[in-house]
Amino acid sequence: MSFRRVLPVVALFAIPAMAQEAPPDPEDTRATFPATPHASKVFPWPTGVPYQADTEPELIRGRQMGYNQCNSTTQNQDSLCQTGFFNSIEDFCLWAPPHPDSLIGDSEGEGVAWCTQPKHGARLIPEGALQGLQFIKTPSYVQIAGFIDQTRLNIQAGDQGGEFDPHGADLRGNPLGGLMYSNAFSGGGENYQQVIEWTLFIGADAFCFKVCDSADDDADHYCEHIYDRMGCNFNMPNQAQNGTFESCLGENQDFPGTYVENGQTLTYTQPPYPTLVDPTYTPRMPASSECQTFQSAELFSGLADVTAPGQPEPTGEDGEDTEPSAGTPTSNGPRPTSSDDAGNQDNADADAEDSAVTIAVSGVSIFAVIFSAMFFA
Ligand SMILES: *[C@@H]1O[C@H](CO)[C@@H](O)[C@H](O)[C@H]1NC(C)=O
Ligand SMILES: *[C@@H]1O[C@H](CO)[C@@H](O)[C@H](O)[C@H]1NC(C)=O
After folding, report:
1. Which of 43, 87, 152, 289 has the fewest CB neighbours in a 10 Å radius?
2. How far is the CA of 249 from the centre of ligand 2 (A)?
3. Cα separation of 337 and 240, whole Å?
4. Does residue 74 have its Cβ closer than 6 Å to ligand 1?
5. Does 132 score more than 60 pLDDT?
6. Angle at 268 between CA 262 and CA 271, to 5 degrees
């Protein structure tokens, strides 16, 4: 029965999360937009951080699922903390679903913070989830891109993922009410500043995350959020390698969506869903320098004993002998010299048959068309 062998596999990867999302209910007369867009709200650290940044639960997407005041009481693996940090290669948080086996497209409004350090009142990223990272600090932003075992972050195997940012089509943010802080632009320590412009793509066993310096006039351009179906290599050109953990300095990228041709700066427009995205150019790879490599265990010593939901407990007597699966950067050889090795979202294989989910063009793989057109602008 060969057709039965082939078809279900294709369907597994090809059914967009869209298909599983409830369409907007025409009878629902609740309003959509908040009085003040989420990205316009200012909450100074630490005393200005509210219990919930979103204060309009009567709007169409309902109440903010978690909370923004996170402390030692909320520091656990069931935490619903929705305040994230991005400070350095060893101290950052990702947004990922609160419940196991979720699709990003279904749970974008509900992402919770998963952090590398046990000091933000949030969940910890489980051992083995981070498999290779490139951190870059540029004049205008910090960026981290890498390879993950997404199932350890509650993301369904095979999910091509989606994008989180503080905007969303209804201007309430994804996750709803999610706040982001950083000390990367303020000299480190506890001097955390709220980051107004940031964007995180996660899915297809990879992620990329950029937070832009609010003091920079172009923060909104470097952290442009409208190319939400275009994935990491388009929005955040990077040279992350699976198995390598490195921290670099870098120059700024071109604003996402813009490129220079014959001396003219041109802008690409992402077509409206469901038209497939089809980038007309390959983004310029910004130069990086002074890269330092690390062992994952030295960066993330606090994660060695953190078990992913549904994973067996570490087998060793004290858990210390359970090595992260990809902590051996030295086995990976020289750094790539071409952008073809950027790697992220290199996932076209699963969909090769006839899927409309993922296409790859000129080395730029495209994020799945899996988001409700409604909430991802
Ligand atoms: C800790 O955070 C939770 C969730 O925001 C809050 O309910 C609780 O009051 C906080 N506890 C302290 C001691 O601040
Ligand atoms: C990254 O490396 C790990 C460990 O070798 C492997 O299991 C995983 O599939 C790799 N990820 C990708 C996207 O190639």
Report:
1. 289
2. 25
3. 12
4. yes
5. yes
6. 150
